[in-house]
Amino acid sequence: MRHADRGRHPVFRQPRGGTGAFRDGRHRVQLSPVARALEVALSASCAGDAPLGVAVSGGGDSVALLLALAGRRVHAVTVDHGLRPGAAAEAQFVAGICARLGLRHDTLRWQGWDGQGNLQDSARRARYRLIADWAAAQGIGRVALGHTRDDQAETVLMRLARGAGVDGLSAMAPRRESLGVTWLRPLLGLSRADLRAYLAERGQGWIEDPSNEDARFDRVQARRTLAALAPLGITAEGLAETAARMGTARAALEAATLEAAGRVAREDRGDVVLSRAGLDALQGEIARRLLVASLCWVASSEYPPRAEALAETLAALGSAPRATLHGCLIARETDDLRIGREPAALAGTVAPAGALWDGRWWLDGPAEPGLEIRALGEGGLAACPDWRATGLPRASLLAAPAVWRGAHLVAAPLAGLCNGWQARLATTLSQRIISH
């Protein structure tokens, strides 16, 4: 698949005038209604003195967010996907704004597109992963994103078209834990028009991504459909309110699932062990949610498995001792189901020592150049004579994180070979239940 905007250039937008009504980090100037709404939203969402990352593309929404956050402990980041000729210039544009505001800024570059599959989805996933790794390296636990009420409404429309349920129609959450980062969306209550009015007050330009006008993209089609539905009273405000109500319903279901997990599930060094009798006694939707959350947590997956695939796997486990699904190995034990990482799914999963591995494992120990984190595997397990004493199944240990120096195993903490290293999880099952 060729990127729709390869060869097309972004458009710079410069608003006229400007009222100068803003907080500049040193003085409070009388705020306009839009600036006041922004400040209220940021105070509620981005409270505290902890460092805050902010993802800035150069578009109007994220530039407005950046300006409104000036004066806080902010470190901006821009991802250059390298897919359009103007991408590098956009990153430089953001860097220039940050230099003027006295804010730190980094540009991350993605070079992973192989021309296969859904480009927008691949780029979005890569963007989150790059920013999460960057945030971890910078000691930043929170990253603010510039999604607006219009983005929320468009997301609801797209998910309606896919037959989404409560989770899908609750759209984007104001706060979400993923990849070891708290992602904040403080602008979901404001519109794009609000933010461009704010930019006009500040006299600040922005860059329009040409893909925002390309009807081959679902979001552009949703945007145009939303405009066409306005005469029927279907508006961005109304759809965003629907998402908020669905979010309330989702929170209630998550709370019930979390309570059920406390009774029928336990974490075992990265695996989830579920009581089969306890799972069978749960209401169907709660049992499904618990299973999906367990699979996604073990696989560090943002997306759930298909409903049909989950049903087929559970049916197969009625007679088979084990089955694979969603990058996980599900095994029947005497009274339980154990969900662990599927060893084969980790082929090629490598991270430098000190980085997050497989989306959820940190390994802490005596660092030295050239060390890597990889799965333990057959060869590594053979070098761990005490692995049986750990009590973990062999299959779980094959998928366990280990420290390697080339072909030499340095440490495998979960398999009893520590050598000064410890393995710890970046998240818990409970966090996965309430954050997706």
TrEMBL record:
Its job: Ligates lysine onto the cytidine present at position 34 of the AUA codon-specific tRNA(Ile) that contains the anticodon CAU, in an ATP-dependent manner. Cytidine is converted to lysidine, thus changing the amino acid specificity of the tRNA from methionine to isoleucine.
Domain comment (free text): The N-terminal region contains the highly conserved SGGXDS motif, predicted to be a P-loop motif involved in ATP binding.
InterPro entries given in the database record: Rossmann-like_a/b/a_fold (IPR014729), TilS/TtcA_N (IPR011063), tRNA_Ile_lys_synt (IPR012094), tRNA_Ile_lys_synt_N (IPR012795)
Database matches in CDD domains: TilS_N
Localization (cell): Cytoplasm
NCBIfam families in alphabetical order: lysidine_TilS_N
Protein name: tRNA(Ile)-lysidine synthase
GO BP annotations, alphabetical order: tRNA modification
EC number: 6.3.4.19
HAMAP family: tRNA_Ile_lys_synt
Record-stated family: Belongs to the tRNA(Ile)-lysidine synthase family.
Domain tRNA(Ile)-lysidine/2-thiocytidine synthase N-terminal: 53-224
Highest classification ranks of the organism: Bacteria, Pseudomonadati, Pseudomonadota, Alphaproteobacteria, Rhodobacterales
Enzyme class: ligase
Pfam families cross-referenced by the UniProt entry: ATP_bind_3
Residues that, per the record, bind ATP: S57, G58, G59, G60, D61, S62
GO cellular-component term (any): cytoplasm
Entries under Gene3D superfamilies matching the protein: HUPs
Catalytic activities: cytidine(34) in tRNA(Ile2) + L-lysine + ATP = lysidine(34) in tRNA(Ile2) + AMP + diphosphate + H(+)
UniProt GO molecular function: ATP binding; tRNA(Ile)-lysidine synthase activity
Basic residues composition bias: residue spans: 1-11
Residue span of region Disordered: 1-21
